[in-house]
Structure formats: structure tokens, C-alpha cells
Amino acid sequence: MFSNILLGITGSIAAYKSADLVRNLTKQGFTVRVVMTHAATKFITPLTLQTLSNQPVYIDLFATEMEHINLARWADIILIAPITADFITKLTYGHADDLLSTICLATTAPIAIAPAMNQQMWNSAITQENCQKLRQRNIKILGPATGSQACGEIGAGRMLEPLELIQFLQNLVLTQPLQGKQVLVTAGPTREDIDPVRFISNRSSGRMGYAVANAAANKGASVILVSGPTALTTEVPTISVYSAKDMLEVVMANISNTDVFISVAAVADYRPVQQTKHKLKKDSAQLQLLLERTEDILTNVTNLSKPPFTVGFAAETTDLDDYARKKLATKKLDMIAANLVGIDGSGFDSINNKLKVFWNDGNLELPHCSKTELANKLLDVIIQRFSAKNTL
Ligand code: CTP
User: Fold this and answer.
1) Ligand 1 contacts CB of residue 375 (under 6 A)
2) In sequence order, which ranges of 265-340 are alpha helices (DSSP H)?
3) How far is Cα 119 from Cα 147, in angstroms, rounded to an integer?
């Protein structure tokens, strides 16, 4: 799940510790690819790191076409250890004049840095100011430790020990299993206009979809929420849409980098064939509306040549298992989360819910609880099935 570590090494004497770091990370089951600056090669040889990581070591920006993009996409996390004062400045200002800085600019993976430098350089106003800016961009700064330095001075500026850096990465794996993954979630109802003042919609409040998006973000994923009209707010980056057609467009525009797609939205299945330009008048005893099917968003996604891990939702009033299994198969889903609506306070527009989750060769019941708790439990099942599929 969270296994690809891109280790950046820059030109500091602490680079000698990187050999131990690579050896231990590899022993823990991580795949490590090393990217060195030219200055780093003065302190430790690429051959040492290549031998310990059992992977090629990358140095030149122009050695292979598009290498910076491939590596930026490959990484689940970028750890730069050691990072010099100079490289901190480059990272702060978005330079892209060598392979490592270019990768940092091109990646969506989280970045952590382990500074190593003379204590005066670390304490200088400019380094501290740069680090503050990096923290604001969610770049994690690990250390530095205080103690005697290679230059003979004593103070803060020693790179953390490899075991401390490994501990940080292991914690991240435990608490943030979706670190480095892109998750796209849809939520809420859609509205299908009849005339300028009336529409067809449904009772979805969006609570379940918002809870799922928040749970994925709390587990470390980069989340985009595509939301129909709701009264809810969230910290997760959200694209608001109105109709099923809008939702399809936004989903398809964002699907290419998505690892997991969770379609919680109660998308309208039908829309009026015509939306009248002016308000309809009640000048007849009866009114017939002709409806047409909307596009099925899930099917559009699972028909892609490389679909993401795709999870659907099903709200049923009877025969939950049968309908859910049918939708799992016909929509070619990896998983479906189904619930009975309108029974014991579950389902649409309620605070609590319970779900039954189905996949090809299994199912699991998630008990009645708040939608926030339920979303967390659902994410745990999604992570298990997603990892199982990706390690097959
Ligand atoms: N869905 C979709 N696009 C649509 C309609 C629904 O992607 N146009 C998704 C929903 O987000 C949900 C799942 O499909 O994940 C629900 O399946 P669906 O067959 O549409 O369920 P119902 O609307 O309840 O349909 P039915 O009347 O067939 O039970």
C-alpha cells in the first residue's frame, strides 16, 4: 500500500548515514529508490546506494526522458535525508534545476525532510523562515538533533539517526495507510431541472459521502470531493456540481490520477427530456413529464482501460443482498456498500447508518453507528481490499 520511498540525498557529510537508512528501510520491506544531487556524490558513492537498495540510483535530470515525472508519480513519499540549507532554499522557492528539486515540484506525494548542517546555518533567520514556509505547505521537518557536529561546534543541526527516521515512516504507514494515494468521492443528490424554478431530486443529505471523504483524508489520502447540492461544509477540496451530467463531467476530468473512486452520491437515474425555458403554468388538470436516463457515472469509470479501485453504493428498500450483488457485477465494481433505506432510522437524511459491504468473493456487515464511525470502518475495508488487489 504505502511502500515506495524516494530517498533524496543532498551534499552533507551526514550522507554517510544514508547507507544505513537505505539498508534498514529495504529490510523493513519498503522499496527505496535513491535520487542524489551531484554534491551528494562527493560524500557517498551511487554504487553503495544502488547495491543496498537493489534499485538504480538517479542523479541527472536529463539522463532519461521524463524520468522526473515517472519518479514523481512512483513515490508514495519523498524523504530528503540529509537536506542541506541550500536545498531547503531550493525547495522553499520551487527551483527545478536538478533532478531531485524537479521531482519535488512534480509530485503529489508528501515530502519529509531531515536537515543536516552547521548549527549557525540552521539557526540563521533565512533557514528558519524557509522552514516555516515549508511547514505551512505540510512538508514535515524531522529534527535536526542537537549535539556535537562534524565541524567541531555543538548545537542543533545533526541529522536524525536512521532508526528515528524509520520510526517516523512506520508510524505514517500505521496511521496514514492512504498516504500518497488519490481518492475521488462523490456525495449528495443531483438536481435535474424541469423548468427554471423546479427540479427532480432525492432525499440524500450528503452526510455519508462527506464522512467518507473526511475519513479518506484522515487516513492520509489526497481527496477530491465532488458534491451535489448539500448544506454541508468540509476541509476536503470540493468541486460543487448540480446535475448528473455535471457530476459525470467533473468525475471524468479528475479520474486519470485516481487510485480509489468511491461513488456515494445519490445520482438521479432520470432527468426530464426537456427543460422548459419559462416556468410551467398549471393550465391543465394533469401534467405528464417525459424522463430519460442519465449517464451512469460508475459504469463510465469502470469501462476505462485502467479503472481505479471502484466502490459503489446501493440504497434499497427490499432484497438488499440480491440487488447489491447484481449491481456489483453489472457495474463491474470492486466493492459495493449497501444499506436498507427507511428502516430503523438508517439511510438517507439520517445521522446513523449501517452497511453491508460486498466484493467478489466475500461480504461484511458494518454495524449501526454514526456515519463518521461507519465511514472510518468502510475505509478500513476498502484499504484491505485495495491492498489485496494491488499485491495480487
Ligand atoms: N450511480 C452512478 N450514476 C448514475 C446513478 C447511480 O454512478 N447515473 C451510482 C451511485 O453513486 C451509487 C450506485 O450507482 O454508487 C447506485 O446504483 P444504482 O443502480 O443507480 O442504484 P439506484 O439508483 O438505487 O438504482 P435502481 O433503481 O436500479 O436500484
Assistant:
1) no
2) 297-302, 320-330
3) 9
The strand pairing partners of 165, in sequence order, are none
Residue 82 preceded by cis peptide, ω within 30: yes
Pocket flag, ligand 1, residue 68 (CB < 6 Å): no
- Give the separation between CA 105 and CA 162, rounded to whole angstroms: 25
Shortest-distance Cα residue to atom 3 of ligand 1: 296
151 in active site: yes
pLDDT tens-digit series, residues 203-229? 999 999 999 999 999 998 999 999 999
Q: How far apart are CA 244 and CA 260, in angstroms?
A: 20
Domains in the chain and their CATH numbers?
Answer: 4-173 (3.40.50.1950), 182-391 (3.40.50.10300)
- The x, y and z cell numbers of residue 86, run together, are 541550500
Alpha carbon distance 157, 148 (integer Å): 9
Name the residue of 245, 267, 330, 340 to mutate for ligand 1: max ligand atoms within 8 A of Cβ. 267
- 132 CB contacts (<8 Å, ≥6 apart)? none
- Compute the distance from residue 367 Cα to the ligand 1 centre, in Å: 23
The backbone region for 64, taken as left when phi is positive above 0, alpha when psi lies in -120 to 50, beta otherwise, is beta
- Write down the number of H helices and E strands in the chain: 13, 20
Single-letter amino acid code for the residue at 329: A
User: In this predicted model, what pLDDT tens digit does every residue of 156-202 receive, in sequence order?
Assistant: 999 999 999 999 988 887 788 898 889 999 999 999 999 999 999 99
Predicted structure pTM score = 0.75
Residue indicated by cell numbers 438517507:
348
The helix/strand/coil state of 387 is helix
Q: Is the dihedral of CA 367, 373, 375, 378 positive or negative?
A: negative
Number of alpha carbons in the 13 Å side-chain half-sphere of residue 62:
1
Q: How far is CA 383 from CA 77, 215, 334, 378, in A?
A: 18, 12, 12, 9
Residue 256 CA to ligand 1 center (angstroms) comes to: 22
Contact, 324 vs 356, CB < 8 A?
yes
**Apex 163 CA angle, 29 and 128, nearest 5:** 120
Q: Which of 247, 269, 330 to mutate for ligand 1's pocket (most ligand atoms within 8 Å of CB)? A: 269
